[in-house]
Design brief:
Layout: H1 2-5, H2 7-42, H3 69-98, H4 103-129, H5 150-179, H6 187-193
Helix pairs in contact: 2-4, 2-5, 3-4, 3-5
């Protein structure tokens, strides 16, 4: 635990948080662009109402200010692991549905999937720095893709992308909070308060 409190660890944590904030900002920008393309190519209405996507925790959280840094990191990690699976499913469905007819949409989905994977790894690094390794992925993540009709899959994809955009905003906010110096953001306080 002493290593997590050292000045070197604090600088490393701040550096990882700063890079994570930039990654989250870039990811959000790319997801918003992808959302526009997705809506257009799938023939959807941008204002379509979409139900919550099963297996993805909502980015909105009550009592956000009461969460510890470790709790924030763990929730982010669970969400991005779920997004990694969901985006891979969307990419497979896209290839099945359109083949190479819409290669641009497939490339954009693949690029966002790569960003989500990189951000997941980044969160795991932050958890290791906090003297707490990331939880295993066994049994984690969303349930297998349900057998949905074409329109339902399109709506589910829209919901996944919308929620991912919200998570990118929350992640940047969580990392800004974690990077703040002070007793509330130190590794020792985060670990002591976590269950």
């Amino acid at each position: 635990m002493a290593a997590a409190d050292s000045p070197t660890a604090a600088l490393r944590r701040r550096d990882l948080c700063s890079r994570g904030i930039r990654l989250a900002g870039k990811m959000r920008s790319d997801v918003v662009d992808l959302l526009d393309t997705y809506v257009e190519r799938q023939g959807l209405d941008a204002s379509a109402s979409v139900a919550a996507v099963e297996g993805v925790p909502a980015a909105a959280v009550e009592r956000w200010d009461e969460q510890t840094g470790t709790q924030r990191l763990l929730e982010n990690l669970a969400a991005y692991r779920a997004f990694r699976v969901l985006l891979a499913q969307m990419l497979d469905e896209q290839r099945e549905q359109l083949g190479e007819a819409d290669a641009a949409l497939g490339r954009a989905l693949a690029a966002v999937l790569l960003q989500v994977s990189a951000f997941t790894y980044h969160l795991e690094e932050l958890l290791r720095l906090e003297s707490r390794g990331p939880p295993s992925e066994e049994g984690a993540g969303p349930p297998p893709a349900p057998h949905l009709g074409l329109f339902e899959r399109k709506l589910r994809g829209l919901g996944v992308l919308r929620e991912l955009a919200q998570w990118a905003v929350r992640s940047a906010r969580d990392l800004r909070q974690l990077a703040k110096p002070g007793p509330g953001s130190s590794a020792a306080a985060s670990l002591a308060e976590s269950p």
